[in-house]
Amino acid sequence: MRTAYSVETVRAAERELMARLPEGALMARAAAGLAAVCAELLARGRGRVYGARVVLLVGPGDNGGDALYAGARLARRGAGVTAVPMDPERMHPGGLAALRAAGGRVAASVPGRADLVVDGLLGIGGRGGLRPAAAALVERIPAGAAVVAVDLPSGVDADTGEVAGPAVTADVTVTFGAYKPGLLTDPGASRVGAVRLVDIGLDLDGAAVALEAPQHADVAALLPVPTASSDKYRRGVVGVVAGSEQYPGAAVLAVAGALRGGAGAVRYVGPAADAVLARFPEVLVGRGRVQAWVVGPGLGSGREAEVGRALADTDVPVLVDADGLRGLDAGVVRGRRAATLLTPHAGEAAALLGVARETVEAGRLAAVRELAGRYGAAVLLKGSTTLVAPGGGGAVRVNPTGTPWLATAGSGDVLSGLAGALLAAGLGGVDAGSAAAYLHGLAGRFAAGGAPVVAQEVAAALPRAWRSVRD
Ligand SMILES: NC(=O)C1=CN([C@@H]2O[C@H](COP(=O)(O)OP(=O)(O)OC[C@H]3O[C@@H](n4cnc5c(N)ncnc54)[C@H](O)[C@@H]3O)[C@@H](O)[C@H]2O)[C@@H](O)CC1
Ligand SMILES: Nc1ncnc2c1ncn2[C@@H]1O[C@H](COP(=O)(O)OP(=O)(O)O)[C@@H](O)[C@H]1O
Ligand SMILES: [K+]
What we know:
The chain is of the alpha/beta class. The chain has 19 helices and 18 strands. The chain has an 11-stranded mixed sheet with strand order 1-9-18-17-16-15-14-13-10-11-12, sandwiched between helices. β14, α12 (330-334) and β15 form a beta-alpha-beta unit. α17 (429-448) crosses α19 (462-470). The longest helix is centred in the first third of the chain and has 22 residues, at 25-46. Pfam families: Carb_kinase, YjeF_N.
């Protein structure tokens, strides 16, 4: 798991460490790590550090201090380093002295050309959108310069990934001590480029994890694999209540996801049985015993009774998606004993929360936490950097795989079938949702390969995703 911690947690760990170290030691570690990454980028881009034009955007706090000390290191290696302050009266004094002593200079405006720009405007102390003085510097970052963000791109909220107004878009973000949630969650995550974590000695063992991103091994450990004693019932039968005369394809795609999700059998309930059987003769049709229900994809309107019937089966895990989410009763969901997993996209989440879609998209972490709290259920919020929040509070999972090519009709139906199969195999709501999002994202990448992809191809690529995770 790649784990991210809140600013409050990081600050507490920093205080504890600083109390045991000589003054300035932590910043020296941070600056050394930052300078090393900058030097590596310059060496890769132009062969050497000597003679490179480096511009430091310097904020009033310690983030600016890191940039100044790193700039001093680069200046000692022969780079021409220019610091441009957000506020000339407020620059880290030690950092400024170090830069000057190394031959660096201070300028009032951003030079028109640079090989490398170091964004040291705001770090974890940044609040709200960039103020005009900071925004004006960001706007003048010269085209063609590599941009390295110090700790996080300025303008991105460290705890939430929210971006209010202008923000830096980095090629590389050098972050200190621990990942912050905003580096892994969109819209912030799209601004960070490659993230390099510099160890400054923080001890976060036992600290509360705010956000975690599963990796191959975490997902491999969750995926059910049949053994000699398995039979189709033990592997899990997933019931799919999906599709309508208007949207028969949703049923086919949800079933495709469920079959590729390792279900022992898939049972289909609804008016699209002919379409489902034509494509998948393996499917059982009609009600019967299942180990999990998937309800909602392509149901259309007026099918609330069928959603209610699945939810009333309180001992069987239920995934509710798409049309099944309309008017979903929080009391009913809260009263269930088995896992419930809700899988809205931003529009559906907005309808459940009674806010605008833009509000959900701008504050994805807050939205998914709020929904999970209200419904007391696991909630998977689809979209770029899909999030999965547990009903009882605690660490949210963020999906690191995926591609914008997945934004295609029906790909969400494949995801719900897949997650339903994992619920039927016995995974909890958060595990089923996050493992499904991971596989679905990989399958999307494999199927797309840089070109448009359709939902059926995502389902067809799931075995390859599964194998790549288990390798
Ligand atoms: N605390 C520590 O032990 C360490 C901190 N380090 C660095 O220190 C940073 C945190 O430093 P600070 O706490 O000084 O905070 P920052 O340097 O992130 O920013 C705080 C300053 O920015 C101003 N500011 C806040 N929001 C603004 C906005 N929207 N527009 C314009 N100005 C704004 C504030 O008035 C304040 O003066 C970390 O991100 C990291 O880069 C590292 O040196 C490692 C060690
Ligand atoms: N910009 C994006 N980047 C990455 N993945 C995305 C993006 N937009 C949508 N997706 C993914 O595509 C799928 C679309 O699902 P959904 O919105 O339910 O579509 P549908 O209802 O047509 O199946 C989800 O898995 C979602 O996470
Ligand atoms: K920064």
